Fold this sequence. Notes:
Helices cover 32% and strands 40% of the residues. The mean pLDDT is 89. It is globular. By secondary structure, the chain is α+β, with helices and mostly antiparallel strands.
Amino acid sequence: MPQFAVSVPHHLSKEEAHERLKSFSTKVKEHYAEMVKDINQSWDGDTLNFGFKTLGANIDGSLAVREDAVDVTGNLPMTAMLFKGKIESVLRDEIARLLS
């Protein structure tokens, strides 16, 4: 299965970055309600495991909070490959907004 990857640098403490990212799915729902559905998330330490549906495709992945960056990786079904850039862009923008 094809994958996507996004890394967003930050200058916060790891704890502060983690705290701000707790509202990740809420912010995505607010800004992209017409595109993103069925968002689920669960934290395991400093890693957020998530899933959502967009443009008819189920996307899943993880978001890892590191000391200097947040790394997001996930799987894309073949039907979503045309939207890989858009998905990565939305994730990058939302994470950067939460960390700024």
